[in-house]
Amino acid sequence: MEKVLYLIDGHALIYRAYYAFIRRPLITTKGENTSAIFGFMRMVLKMMSDERPEYLACVFDSKSKTFRHDMYREYKAKRLAAPEDLKDQVETIKELVQRLGIASEEMDGFEADDIIGTVVEKARNQGFRSVIISGDKDILQLVGGSVTVYANKKGLSEIDIMDRKRVEEVWGVKPEHMTDLLALMGDQSDNVPGIKGIGQTIAVKLIQQFGSIESLYQNLKKVESNRTRELLTGGKEDALLSKQLVSIRTDVPLEVRFDNYRIADFPKTEGIDLLLEKELNSIAAELKGVRKIEKREESKRGTYTLIDRRENFQDLKRRIAEQKLISVDTESTGRDPLLADLIGVSISTCEGEGYYLPIRTKGAGALGVDFLMEELKPILEDDRIQKVGQNIKYDLVLLMKEGIFMHGIQGDSMIAAYLLNPQKQRYSLDDLAFEYLDYRTIHYDEVVKEKGKTLLDCPLEEVIIYAGEDSDITLRLYDLLVKKLEEEKLLSLYNEVEIPLLVVLGKMEHRGVRVDPVYLEEMSRSFSQELDELEKKIYGITGCNFNIRSTKQLASVLFEQLGLPVLKRTKTGISTDESVLEELARKYEIARLLLRHRTLSKLKSTYIDSLPTMINPATGRIHTSFNQTIAATGRLSSSTPNLQNIPIREAEGRAIRKAFIPEEGWVFVSADYSQIELRILASLSSDETLLSAFHRDADIHRETASILFSIPTERVGDEQRAAAKTINFSIIYGISPFGLAKSLGISRGEASQFIDTYFVKYSGVKRFFDALVEDAKKKGYVETLLGRRRYIPEIRSENTNIFEAARRIAINTPVQGTAADLIKKAMVSIDREMEKREMASRMLIQVHDELVFEAPRTEYRALIDLVKDKMENALDFSVPLKVNVSVGNNWEEAH
């Protein structure tokens, strides 16, 4: 059997992991940054899971200078010093690797690349195939024969497997000529000079033509371009030096013992303990699971039974009646519950047991739809039998499609886990079982092994275990998570808001909303015409045709051909992002045209052309998904389509809303909270000036303008009111003088003065914000009015940038999160009242602080009164809430 050695380029992965989380670092309750440790371990775990290595070593750079510094004093001179919180993590990772049981290598005077090169060379002689995990391009020179590089392609997740063919595809040269390529083009990250004026494109052509730089200089006369020849002549010394600098040594005086690299007792308990100490509980849980990859602990596995005959079902029916609480999970043919078909239902009445009821199969053994409707429907619709699930909204909608409305929903493990830790990235059953039960579930792709297949195509005996485990683990999680919710005083929020809300959202998703495809088709044609006209104008100004959507081509035209000023650079080159174009648009017409082109293109592709494709053929409506576990503040989000991202400030965005229409002969009713976050801020802060303004029903923006500009309210102009409005809402988000200056187009000094004046006049707000920050430092979290928590360990960071970002979260979350609690509470209350009155009207859409309904013309006035009352009285505040309600024949008209 072939022996394979895996070598991890430690520092390369650590740096990538650190900067992947630079905007949202992971901070412990002690204020320590653990982003690099987390990201590094995620990559290692993925590799361990995917590859199951027998031989593995992690190689690190040494702290000392290397032989390359002796060759060239400026080597890596321009590289910024590593942040202190990164240096600390490097040392922790080195310790962690050792404590987990992974071999490591490091040697003074040499870089990790040289050690890797040496180990790879010795491994080749010992009959090993080597796999190097690294994101550095220098390492690609080692590729060939027995050596492959797994290159981090994007972020932390995507891997590009670089063999000889792939290196040539990506870089245009063979691996053995990577040193020649880098010698010509240089390497900015290591301050390898290369030859000034020769970039990657020219360098690739030269190496393709001449092979090596030595051959190139021997045949210099054959270089066609005079300018390139001059650059090569003048830069020969730099090129030869650069080749030496980028060439990896394969003769480091290192004693290599391959037996030391053999994975034995991985992961060792000491390593897991260190991860727990650093509060990386999910990684620790997953590492514990690695021990069970080959064989799960049978003591934790439940007993899963097939119910394939009606007579077998009677015993389960009795157990359900006795227990009064069951976990329910459905299996289907797809992720969209309105397009998928129900395959089967699994039920657990107690932990460690699960029963699978196949409704549809490709072979024998299906109970059939008649059984579903006659036997299961009464149980699922009985509200005396409480049901719990994992993402049970999916099951609810899927069953509604089958003609069953599940009553008695009592809990959802996904939502419970979200309330306990709203900043997690994933709340899948697999992840939660790992984290809370130390149990590795059977993953979907372990059962459904082929793309395009579903559980319907799998052996029934495998589906029984997979489905039974789902309902069993869900029940185990429910019992555990409910106790944790009670401990954290989150149970009432869970029971009174989130669980009832998921039922409301399920009904909204099932109903969907009508859109007018004819209107969208006309809109698409209109946009296409304007885009064509814009392109003609752009090409007329530039004097050439190019791909406007290619940022590389656009940058070349704007900054090289037209000579526009370069405002911003990224790792990949000159930036042409929106902020750059907006700045350039002040002086240059082409930037204004490009901005307009981008706006129209995005709206056309994202909404105008996409919405008709989302119409469900069976219902003739669009069924968006409402997500409860995405935003850390508690706000809902929507997807497929994302209704919250339709830009209503722009006329084109508002025009898209016109495509949303009510049932024939019905009307839309839109209800929108007015200035809700400012009203909540007034109530939470008890600021007397704000409270007074809202009790008087004054124009709060005009009042603020009067204060900031020191003029009577009656003399406040439109521009001053607009500025005050920006300031009012910016304050809630903890805006800095720099941010406010940019928003208002004023100096930082003026912005700072505005903020200072605001806090002098609204002193209660200042005291409230200060108290929030101090409280967050003590507790590590902030809360909404209903007790929803957001953990902010970053608030204890000594890094100024990290602390400031955390401070803004601490200030904003109680306000924005309370607004989320409010509208959720209102939605539950409205839905209950509509059901009680047996109204025909339907709640369809929730976007930010707005609810949209469709109602018969004979009922909409009663609906308006109901909605306004429930929204304005959903929670108790010390200021009156105000809801604006309007009616129309489309969404825009009703808004």
CATH class of the largest domain: Alpha Beta
Q: How would you describe the shape?
A: globular
The whole-angstrom Rg is 31 Å
Total number of strands? 24
| Structural domain count | 5
Task: Tell me the span between the first and last alpha carbons.
Answer: 69 Å
- Report the helical percentage: 40-55%
What oligomeric assembly is this protein in? single chain
Give the low-confidence spans. 291-299
What is the spatial order of strands in the main beta sheet? 3-2-1-4-5-6
Question: Could you name the CATH topology of the largest domain?
Answer: Alpha-Beta Plaits
- The amount of beta strand, in percent, is 5-15%
Mean pLDDT metric: 91
The CATH architecture category of the largest domain equals 2-Layer Sandwich
The major β-sheet equals: 6 strands, mixed
How would you portray this structure in words?
- Helices cover about 50% and strands about 15% of the residues.
- The protein is an alpha/beta fold and about 900 residues long.
- The strands form 7 sheets. The chain has a 6-stranded mixed beta sheet, sandwiched between helices. Strands 7-10-9-8-11-12 form a 6-stranded mixed beta sheet. Strands 22-23-19-24 form a 4-stranded antiparallel beta sheet.
- Strand 20 and strand 21 form a beta hairpin.
- The protein starts with a strand and ends with a helix.
- About 0% of the residues have low confidence.
Attribute tags:
single chain; 895 residues; alpha/beta; Rossmann fold; Nucleotidyltransferase, domain 5; 36 helices
